[in-house]
Amino acid sequence: MHPTLLGPDLSVLYFFNSVLASPFLDFLMPLLTFGGTQAFWVILCLLLYLLGGEDEREAAFMALTALVLGFFLSEALKMVIARPRPYEVIGWVRHATVAGGYSMPSGHAVAAFAGFISLYFRLGRPWFFIILASLVGISRIYLGLHYPSDVLAGAVLGVLCAFTALKIDERVKCFGLCRFDRLQQN
C-alpha cells in the first residue's frame, strides 16, 4: 500500500476498531454486517419479489443484478490486489471472527451499496438506504476485517454496480416495450 494512504487508513481503523469499542457495539456490529451477506440479499430480494408489487419486484431484479455484478468484480479485484486483512498484519486490531480471502475491496460494502442503492432507485428513501449501507461498511471496519479504504472502494464499486443494474433494467424494459410496439404495428 502507498505510504500516504496508510496513515489515514490506520487512523480511521484505530478510531472505529479501538476507540469506539464497547460491549454494545460488540453486540450490534456483527448484526449490522449481516446486511452485506449474500444470504441477506437473496432472502430480501425473494421476499420483495414474492410479497411486493411491481416496484418491489423491479427493485429485487435490480438489486440481484447489481449484486451478481458486484460479487464477480470484487472477487476479481481481490485476487489482483491481494491485500491482507488488517487483523492479519496489525497486532492491535481487535477481531471477533476470522474472514477468508483478501481485504480489498470489501465484498460486504460492495453488496450493501449495490443492493441498497438499487432499492433506492426503485423505492425512494435515499438517506435511509445510504445510512444502512454505510452502517454495514462501518461494521466491517469496527470488526477489524477491513481497512477504511477497502470499504470505500467497495462502496464505490457497489454504487457503480447499482447504476449498471439501473441501465440494464432500462434496456430490458425498452427491449420489451419496443418489441411489443413492433408486434402491435404488424
Automatic annotation (TrEMBL):
Entries under Gene3D superfamilies matching the protein: Phosphatidic acid phosphatase type 2/haloperoxidase
Transmembrane segments: 31-52, 59-81, 101-120, 127-145, 151-168
Cited InterPro entries: PAP2/HPO, PAP2/HPO_sf
SMART domains: acidPPc
SUPFAM superfamilies noted in UniProt: Acid phosphatase/Vanadium-dependent haloperoxidase
Annotated Phosphatidic acid phosphatase type 2/haloperoxidase domain residues: 59-166
Record carries keyword Amino-acid biosynthesis: no
Pfam families tied to this protein: PAP2
Keyword Transmembrane helix: yes
Keywords: Membrane, Transmembrane, Transmembrane helix
Domain of life: Archaea
Name of this chain's protein: Bacitracin transport permease related protein
